[in-house]
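We store sequence, tokenised fold; for instance:
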Amino acid sequence: MKKVLAIFTFVLMCGAILCACQSTNSPHNAHEHTYEYGQYDIGHFIRYTCGCPSPLALVEHSDADENGICDVCSFEYDLVFKLTYDKEGYAVDRVGPGYKGGDIVIPSNYNGLPVVEIGYGAFKSEYMLTSVIIPDTVTLISDDAFENQISLTSINVGESVVTIGVSAFEGCTKLKTVVISDATEYIYSAAFKGCTSLASVTLGNQIKEITGSVFENCTSLKTITIPASIEKMGAWVFYDTNITDIYFGVSAPSADWNEKWAEGLNEDVNIHWAEAEE
């Protein structure tokens, strides 16, 4: 009971101080109130700099209606988040009104929960993204997530990303380097299709499935290594490329590979198979 009373008293005191600060009779109204904006975790803060005696020097704000604008002070966020279906984490839903182009850092946590997904079309087309840092909490890059990001030059897929969705990076024509970690198991159709500047791809050692047209029209790609973990290959994976050498960690295609997996490769391409185990 004493604890409850203490909290109630504190709230009343805070309200009284704020009211006094805003009152027309307050001596603090002799000057214009000013505020200092800055980054605070994944949100922002407002710090009073006008000398007001408010105990709330640091005020956290939120975007409860998920429109990218602070519900309290109209601060514009760089990113908009949504709860995942299981409500155990957040997905980056889209770019917010505060983003003006350039580099962006995706936070690992939002509202006390991990950021686990980059949502469908979250960074698609119109936003001029040059680089992105994906935290280790993200396990899914959804379909079309970075499609047609024509200013993106490199991507280091997060250490925990298991799945790269359909057309996730399709049409990223300036993308030159891709590094995929050992956590990634699935790369789905057209994930890097039309990335005409892509010259270097590093695949992790746990890739199980590469589906159709993943590297189609990647005309700058010359060599690639497919790890021994590969179980399925889709059709036209390397269609319309200039690849000269493919290094496989397996000794031969398996029955689960599409019979047209090599369709569209140059006739003089060198395919290097691993030596069969005795």
